[in-house]
Amino acid sequence: MALVWSSMALVYVFVVIISWCPFKVVYSIWWKMMIEKQLEKQGFHGPPYKLLYGNIKDMKFFNENNDQPRAMKTSHDISPLLDPFLHNTVANYGDKFVTWFGTTPRVTITDPKLIREIMSNKSGDFLKPRNSFIDLLVTGVASYHGEKWAKHRKIINPAFHIDKLKVLFHVFCHKLLPFTLKLVIFRFLPTRTNRRMFNIYKQIRSLLRSMIEKREKVIAMVDDDSGKDNLLDLLLKSSHAQVEASKNLKSGLTIEDVIDECKLFYFAGQETTENLLTWTLVVLSMHKNWQDRAREEVLQAIGSNTPSFDDLSSLKIVSFRIPFLCVSFLLLGLCSDEGLWLQPSPFKLVSSFSLGSTCKVLRLYPPVPSILRCTKMKAELGDLVIPAGVHISLPFYLIHHDPKLWGEDALEFNPERFSEGIPKASKDQTSYFPFGWGPRTCIGQNFALLEAKYAIVAIPQKFWFELSPLYVHAPWKSPTLRPKFGAQIILNKF
């Protein structure tokens, strides 16, 4: 009798699956037609949709044709290299179009005003799509939403205040000059075996847990002022302070929360800062005149001395308000959410050159060239109505290279463009999104900018550099912006 019931259950499951598959196909076709009609009414057009595949085959075709290294001019017009399919779509359909990633519609927004609206939205209309692979590698504050995001942000924020970073300055300065940092985790990360991936995931968490538990014990044993020169201690103390202030244990971070934040800071901070410094050296190697001006300015100000924190704030100081930029990895949720909004704060930058060159490199080569958001429900965006289930692509690099916003010289490297500050550098005061915008701009922005400024001052002191003949200019999303075939730079010591 049991065997009969088991057989009947299997037959039932089989019938359900067989019935569900055609229903799913029919529903997908109907839903696609409905979404396409709504978007077309609002002026969104794009490449023809192919059943179930969407435009994936077209994307693959364009990317494969661009996959091999070949000699190219070292132009800052990176759009044809970075995303050939998107570049071709813009050429054919303008700056307002829809493409299909399988059965998922993806609209591309290039209007800075609409991008600011998306990233400043605090009602949760535009969320970051979930990616289980990314979540396995890195979670933390960047991937949270709602109250959990607000809680983590509030606790972590004090650890990245500029006064705290001043204490850390001597630590990361001595680690920075070997600027070709390697992401050890990525070096051993498997790409073919899920089992190995999970083993590495467990090892990372185990190592971090052991480290955190040791620091917890030390902090509990010593006075409040000791052990304050590393980010882990600052994070743990900030969590303890939040618990004491609220008299509620749940208001602090658990060990698992701290592990997630440590992984996030390691991946995001190292990857993005490394790429920023790499592109800065590449660009200065392309433009020897600006490299010479940087060296001359630094040598006149501090000679061959090791730059201190105060030196970085005393070289032809340019003071203005700089929005909290975000050191976000692919992985980061740069968009809006309900909760805290950190207002821009006064921040003194190294010098007119350092400010200009850093901003200029970030404009031409943003660490995160584009991000995705999605609508869980129908959402209004300016005069548009975006249906539920639509992905929204925000290609920052297209906006940063747009002549309508930056002038006919948009693709030229000219640090003096930013001599009067970021708001006056373009025709639209806020069309500069190297690391995001809005309430979820990254908490580690000061740390990244401080590292970058130190490198711009310290490296030209000791070296002049040039591109190797082996260098192939091929910017690549992986998922941050990096040189696809490496950055072969020849360093020449004085």
UniProtKB/TrEMBL annotation:
Keywords: Heme, Iron, Membrane, Metal-binding, Monooxygenase, Oxidoreductase, Transmembrane, Transmembrane helix
GO cellular component terms given for this protein: membrane
Molecular function terms from GO: heme binding; iron ion binding; monooxygenase activity; oxidoreductase activity, acting on paired donors, with incorporation or reduction of molecular oxygen
Cofactor list: heme
Membrane-crossing residue ranges in chain numbering: 12-31
InterPro entries associated with the record: Cyt_P450, Cyt_P450_CS, Cyt_P450_E_grp-II, Cyt_P450_sf, Cytochrome_P450_Monooxygen
Residues binding heme, per UniProt: C442
Localization (cell): Membrane
Predominant localisation class: membrane
Family stated for the protein in its record: Belongs to the cytochrome P450 family.
Protein name: Cytochrome P450
Organism for this UniProt entry: Dillenia turbinata
Phylogenetic placement of the source organism: Eukaryota, Viridiplantae, Streptophyta, Embryophyta, Tracheophyta
